[in-house]
Structure formats: structure tokens, C-alpha cells
């Protein structure tokens, strides 16, 4: 069971009843702790910062963290929907309520006044600010931590700051690596005034330094719950950042890091009974399916949602799941792109995750499977799973020219995804692929495996690929969009342009 709510309460209780001097409390009574109070209290009780870290993680699933009251404003999983729609793998198949229309129509890619442009920016910079509060309390970005508690707290804060900058580069920049294009403001402490845009190179250097340090600091951290970042998750985040920058050195590091995760952790590939719902005489016979339980052995990072989180219609499940009281049930279904669905082989088990309409009726669902049934969301969120590491390892090897190694890694996944009587034919097909054709196959399998999980957009950009929308899209059906098309990147939102006078200095 999730313990983050208890961690917050315990940390705050520690602050008010333990080592802090009474006059400090008398002079500065407040419902919320300022960064200065946090830093002062942490000198006496560094464990207080665990509560701040727990609050940082809750930002990932709380509603309104993008600064609006919109029903698409609910943290990371909301932006996973954005990215799947930008990449065209998720088709918006109804507009009765209008959520995501601006993204699906690529209006948000050109109109900096839309909330769809503002919310990711506000959310990820909110994460950065909160992470910086913790980092400042431990002495700042360059402070070296030697005590286990402080190292673990700093490692988590640096990981979350790196995570946020990574997603900002994806949504608001088309450039990668060592480029000198100015893309985003950098904030490395909570007291900095408005900052101008920094270059792609500077932003990537910061996030990769953060995530590298996080891996080092968290090596002996034993997390209590999967919503926390440990060394394995930090390696996954670092792999994403390195793969996006994509130098030869970076890709070799991706191979090494993902190998460590694949071979050195207890996570295993989602098995057939977990992969799709099996219905016999109208009854679900494999309750371990549904991608709704953080305890699933393939999940590296996720959150155990309970009634205490008070999530309902405004949630990922409230937007995607037919078996939740949701927009997907009531008139705005989200479906798999028709071209992508047609590309799934007849012997591929993942074909069984989707209805013929493209609805993910057998991949994502509330276990009760009552149409429009789940009102208070207790089905969990997945942020990262082991299959991502396998696919990224295969991709990095292919990009490095190691076709044989890439094929062997891809087989590790595909032997679990192709029915036994069809695997030999797939293996023969795969053996004939080399170079770009092999890269294309890995990209395709990434899109199929991770549909609805917000990862196809990241793969599209780092592999410099194009996608053509299928016939079931309401907008731009049949049109092709490249990774560097204007449609793939958001402009900096109006609020930042108006409120940051030094943005373009």
C-alpha cells in the first residue's frame, strides 16, 4: 500500500514537535513552510525533507498542477495523453466535450495562448521549483552529500529536476544534443529571478548531470513505495535523456545503463495473463490484467492510487477507460491509430488488447469492467516499466550499428509477445532486417508495446521518424508529420512571454 501520505504527515509532525526551537515556531507560524523555513528546519531534522519529496511526487498525479481547473490537468499522465496524440498513435475519436481537441488538431502547436500550451510548462516548472527547494535546503546544487539520508533526499530531488527538464525539452524544443539554439530558462535554485533561455546544450548538460548524480546518490536507497525514484528509475530517466541527445558516447551509456536495469533488477516482462484481459462467458478470468496495479512485476515506477487521493473524472482513467465514469465512455473515446492497429501481426498477443474500433478495452480497465462504472479512481498509474528499457537498449544498439545485438534484445521482448506457433516466422522476418529497416521495426514495436503510456512521442523525436495518421483520426487523417514538423513542438506559452522580460535576452 502507498505510504506517501503518511510520510508527509510524519515529516511535518516531526518539524513541529522535535528539534526546532520554540521561538522559531512562535515567530513564524504558518500553514505552509517557506523555502527559508524548510532550510532552517532541515538543519536540525533533515528527515523533514522526506515530506517535501513526498509532496513533489504527489504533484505527478494531483489535479490542477498545471495551473488550471481543466479536466485534462492532472499531472504526468495528462501529458502522456498529449504526447500520444501529438505522435498520432492515439486518435481522439469524439469531441462531445472538447478536451484534447486543441492537441489533436495541432492548434496547441501554433497558438501560445491555449491552456494546452501553458499547462505542461507550468507543471514541469512547478516540479523544478519544488525540487530546488529541497536542493537549496541541502546546501544547493553543488553541495556534496555524504550522509545516507541527505544523499537519498538529494538524489530524489535531482532526479525529479532532471525528469522535468527532460520533458520540457521534448514538448518545447525540436533540437537535441549540443545545439546552440536557445530553448528554455534554467533555474537551479528557488530564489533566482526570471532567467533568459539557455541553449539546448546547457539544458541537456544540466539534466544529465542531475540524473547521473541521482543514480550515484540512490545506489543504496531502498524505497518504501514505487512512486519514489530509486537508482533503477534514475537509470531509466538518465537513459531517456542520453538517448535523446544521442551522441555515440551517450548511446553506449544507454546500452550500459539499460543492461544494468534489465540484468540487475527483479523486474520482469509483463506476461500474457497481465498483458490483456481474457473474458470467458462475460467474466474476467485473469484479474492481474488491466494495467491497473502498481504491484505488477514489470512496473518500475508508478503510484498506488487509493480513495484518499480523491481522483475521479479528472484523471487519466477518467479520460481513457471505458470502464470508468469517463469521457472515453461518455463521448470522447481515445483509440489506437488505425494504421498502427493494422500493423500488429495476427499472431501478436497485443492485438488482443484492442477492440476492432481501436478502443483499448482489454489493455486498460477497471477490474470490475462495468461500463462507466468506476467513480472514485483506485486503479493505479504506471510511469515506467521494464519493457521500455529492453526496447531502448535494442534501439541504442541499432543506432550504434550493432544490428545483431539489437535483434537479440528485441527477441527478449517479442518471444513473450508472439504466439508460440507464430514466433518462428517472426524470428525469420527479424533476421532479414538490418540498418534503417531494423530501426524502423524497433520503433514500431515501441509504439505497439507502449501505446497509451506516453512514450511513442519520445521515440518519434529521438529516432527522427515520421508518422502518417490513419483513417480513424477526426483531423488530418492521411497526413504525414515528421519529428521536426512545427506540429510536434509547443511554443513557449503566452504567460511566460508576458511575465519574463528577460526571456529572449
TrEMBL record:
- UniProt keyword annotations, A-Z: Cell outer membrane, Membrane, Signal
What subcellular locations does the record give? Cell outer membrane
Domain SusD-like N-terminal, which positions?
Answer: 109-220
Keyword Membrane present in the record's keywords: the answer is yes
The primary site where this protein sits is: membrane
Q: Locate the RagB/SusD domain: which residues?
A: 328-503
Q: Give the InterPro entries listed for this entry.
A: SusD-like_N, SusD_RagB_dom, TPR-like_helical_dom_sf
Give coiled-coil spans as residue ranges: none
Family, per entry: Belongs to the SusD family.
Protein name from the UniProt record? RagB/SusD family nutrient uptake outer membrane protein
Q: Which organism is it from?
A: Pontibacter aydingkolensis
Amino acid at each position: 500500500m502507498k505510504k506517501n501520505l503518511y510520510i508527509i504527515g510524519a515529516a511535518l509532525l516531526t518539524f513541529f514537535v522535535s528539534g526546532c526551537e520554540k521561538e522559531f515556531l512562535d515567530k513564524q507560524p504558518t500553514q505552509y513552510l517557506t523555502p527559508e523555513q524548510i532550510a532552517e528546519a532541515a538543519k536540525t531534522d533533515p528527515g523533514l525533507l522526506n515530506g517535501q519529496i513526498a509532496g513533489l511526487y504527489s504533484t505527478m498525479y494531483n489535479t490542477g498542477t498545471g495551473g488550471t481547473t481543466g479536466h485534462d490537468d492532472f499531472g504526468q499522465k495528462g501529458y502522456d495523453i498529449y504526447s500520444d496524440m501529438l505522435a498520432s498513435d492515439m486518435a481522439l475519436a469524439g469531441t462531445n466535450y472538447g478536451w484534447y481537441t486543441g492537441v489533436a488538431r495541432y492548434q496547441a502547436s501554433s497558438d501560445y495562448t491555449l491552456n494546452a500550451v501553458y499547462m505542461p510548462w507550468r507543471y514541469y516548472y512547478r516540479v523544478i521549483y519544488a525540487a530546488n527547494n529541497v536542493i537549496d535546503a541541502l546546501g544547493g546544487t553543488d553541495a556534496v552529500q555524504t550522509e545516507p539520508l541527505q544523499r537519498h533526499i538529494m538524489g530524489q530531488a535531482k532526479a525529479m529536476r532532471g525528469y522535468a527538464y527532460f520533458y520540457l525539452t521534448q514538448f518545447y524544443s525540436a533540437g537535441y544534443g549540443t545545439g546552440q539554439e536557445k530553448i528554455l530558462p534554467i533555474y537551479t535554485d528557488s530564489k533566482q529571478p526570471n532567467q533568459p533561455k539557455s541553449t539546448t546544450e546547457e539544458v541537456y548538460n544540466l539534466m544529465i548531470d542531475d540524473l547521473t548524480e541521482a543514480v550515484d546518490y540512490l545506489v543504496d536507497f531502498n524505497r518504501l513505495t514505487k512512486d519514489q525514484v530509486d537508482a533503477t528509475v534514475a537509470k531509466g530517466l538518465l537513459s531517456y535523456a542520453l538517448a535523446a541527445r544521442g551522441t555515440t558516447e551517450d548511446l553506449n551509456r544507454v546500452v550500459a545503463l539499460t543492461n544494468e536495469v534489465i540484468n540487475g533488477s527483479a523486474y520482469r516482462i509483463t506476461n500474457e495473463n497481465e498483458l490483456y484481459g481474457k473474458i470467458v462467458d462475460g467474466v474476467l478470468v485473469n484479474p492481474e490484467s488491466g494495467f491497473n496495479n502498481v504491484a505488477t512485476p514489470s512496473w518500475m515506477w508508478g503510484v498506488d492510487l487509493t480513495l484518499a487521493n480523491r481522483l475521479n473524472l479528472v484523471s487519466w482513467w477518467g479520460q481513457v477507460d471505458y470502464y470508468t465514469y469517463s469521457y472515453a465512455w461518455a463521448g470522447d473515446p481515445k483509440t489506437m491509430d488505425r494504421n498502427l492497429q493494422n500493423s500488429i501481426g495476427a499472431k501478436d498477443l497485443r492485438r488482443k488488447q484492442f477492440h476492432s474500433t481501436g478502443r483499448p478495452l482489454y489493455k486498460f480497465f477497471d477490474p470490475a469492467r462495468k461500463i462507466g462504472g468506476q467513480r472514485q479512481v483506485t486503479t493505479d498509474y504506471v510511469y515506467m516499466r521494464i519493457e521500455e528499457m529492453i526496447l531502448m537498449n535494442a534501439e541504442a544498439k541499432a543506432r550504434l550499428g550493432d544490428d545483431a545485438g539489437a535483434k537479440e534484445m528485441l527477441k527478449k521482448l517479442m518471444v513473450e509477445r508472439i504466439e508460440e506457433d507464430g514466433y518462428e516466422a517472426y524470428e525469420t522476418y527479424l533476421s532479414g532486417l538490418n540498418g534503417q529497416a531494423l530501426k524502423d521495426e524497433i520503433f514500431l514495436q515501441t509504439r505497439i508495446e507502449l501505446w497509451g503510456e506516453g512514450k511513442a512521442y519520445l521515440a518519434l523525436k529521438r529516432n527522427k521518424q515520421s508518422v502518417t495518421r490513419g483513417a480513424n483520426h477526426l483531423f488530418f487523417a492521411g497526413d504525414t508529420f515528421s519529428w521536426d514538423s512545427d506540429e510536434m513542438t509547443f511554443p513557449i506559452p503566452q504567460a511566460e512571454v508576458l511575465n519574463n522580460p528577460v526571456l529572449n535576452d
